[in-house]
Design goal:
four-stranded antiparallel β-sheet; alpha+beta; elongated; 1 helix
Length: about 70
């Protein structure tokens, strides 16, 4: 999955699940093998002091991901 698409997916998913608008920033290169992890910055747009990271994992060869906000 391209980086921008990954960022938008997480932003939409967090908005739908917890009702929080975020800005997600992932590394420029998110290439790897199934099972690899990447850390993406998750900024809460309603509360700029509330930032965290999401651990993003490549789930399969189709580029599908899962993530967990720390």
């Amino acid at each position: 999955m391209p980086v921008a698409e990954t960022e938008r997916f997480i932003e939409r998913d967090l908005l739908n699940k917890v009702g929080v608008m975020t800005k997600v920033t992932c590394p420029n290169k998110m290439e790897g093998q199934v099972g690899d992890f990447f850390a993406c910055l998750v900024e809460n747009l309603s509360n700029p002091n509330d930032s965290s990271y999401a651990d993003v994992q490549i789930m399969n060869d189709l580029g599908e991901i899962s993530y967990l906000v720390r």
